[in-house]
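User: Sequence in, structure out. Go.
Assistant: Echoing your sequence, followed by the structure tokens.
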Amino acid sequence: MTRGRSIARRVVRVLVALIAVLVLAVVGVLFWASMVMRGERDAAIDAWTDPGISIRSTDHSIVMTPTGEPTGEGLVFIPGARVDPYAYMYVLSGAVAEGLTVVITKPTVNLAFFDQRPLETFTADAPDVTSWAVGGHSLGGVRACQLAESPDVAALVLFGSYCANDLSERRMPVLSLSGSADGLSTPEKIAEAAPLLPRSAEFVEIEGLNHAGFGSYGPQPGDGVGTLSRGEVREDIAGLLREFFAG
């Protein structure tokens, strides 16, 4: 009986230790996720004051709509891990001014993988849009690939990102934008993951663009050095999205 009690106490101690480790791990992840790479203030102001676009914020998204004639097409954009969603407003504002509606999600605990809300949560913010694409930057693009499995998604746009799931049999337009100076989602990594996309996927490498250049949030550890100005990136992406959505 004594031996049985001793074994039981050991089992309890092991279980308590495992629970403590698990709690510490969860706390560690949440603390890491809370260390958000903030958007640059001047870029955000430029987006908010652009007369060609209208911006409103909800508890789960940032909705950017053109003040001029909309194209009827929309893009649900998912931020990279721990990147402030507002950091993408300026880079995407050029495409919005030309008629594209963009809904930038605010991921759960700043990590797209933890955000399991359905696509309708975000498309409902712009009910006038008739055709929706999904896209995202870095790990946000990986999550966008998962959402692209839905038949309700008309197209996929990757910004310095690549898929982890197989979409090779999915019949839809895909645009993969990469940067020649990207030190994280390198051109080599994007090329290796290319077979997961439809054969018709279009790949465009932007010369001089690094990983953080897809947003306006300053330098990022492990990244390359970009040579493009913020305005040049905005103009390049607006032009590429214009051509892509024009078909």
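User: And one key feature?
Assistant: Residues 16-34 have pLDDT under 50 and may be disordered.
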